[in-house]
């Protein structure tokens, strides 16, 4: 196989709790992750010349070793002594630096795809072990679906799927580094812990309302204080009929859970009228595992 086209799916965090801080600055977390059907297209092509070539539709992204997709390819090329080169084309649709694991899912797709193309014989666990050296969200992006993530995000337990719903993804035009957001929490304290067990119980029962009512993200409060527009986006979504709305990961993306596509679309239109949000997408959850 000389060419492979993959979908690199984004994620939202239905729950994100911090249990402690490690000496290296990383945090022990307890998160409920959910894949959404908003994806980047990652195309891998073997080249005769050695090396790694990256191209992308977003001119501001790095195409050198600072791109996490490059790092993923480099890791496998070195470890397995792969002589052929690889061309990676990233057609980006997942908002960048948004708390949706865009880069992590690109890296996951490269690991998964190169394992196949070059017959490396790595198991899913082998891919996850390499993935976590690139970023805490990468192992989850290899696994996908509805998942409990613990440790720094790499200890993964599959959960019953989130019941069918529509997810409105809204990315306001501001950016916050994940590292800075975690550091702010270190200074200000975690505050109240979200009800992760409530989310798990809701998933067990297939009760979407209970899952939505139990959603919580410990990283949200500091971002709400710094960027009041996030509160406005949540209010607009809830006013438009969302079961609940919350920031994903380290933000600034806010997502809302809806039971009808029509309501989600109307909420997106309202957001574009009433807030600075220009990037708003209505999508489904995606529970298909990789084959
Ligand atoms: C916010 C989340 O996206 C929620 O899913 C993840 O926790 C972050 O995952 P990620 O972006 O893949 O994380 P990495 O690229 O490994 O780390 C970025 C920065 O986030 C902080 N970080 C990340 C994960 C974790 N469990 N504790 C942390 O403190 C660290 O300061 C690190 O320097
Ligand atoms: N393939 C890539 N796609 C997107 N961003 C990338 C990529 N490679 C490197 N980056 C850089 O990484 C930074 C974070 O991008 P990314 O979209 O992965 O963040 P994120 O959505 O916050 O991810 P996470 O939820 O895992 O924290 C950006 O500033 C970008 O310049």
Protein model, in words:
This protein is α+β, with helices and mostly antiparallel strands. It folds into 2 domains: 156 residues, Ribosomal Protein S5, domain 2 (2-Layer Sandwich), CATH 3.30.230; 119 residues, Alpha-Beta Plaits, CATH 3.30.70. It contains 10 helices and 11 strands. Strands 1, 2, 3, 4, 5, 6 and 8 form a 7-stranded mixed beta sheet that branches. The protein has a 4-stranded antiparallel beta sheet with strand order 9-10-7-11, with helices on one face. α1 runs parallel beside α2 and α2 crosses α3. The chain is globular and about 55 Å long. The two termini are 16 Å apart. The site of adenosine-5'-triphosphate (ATP) has 20 residues, from α1 and α2.
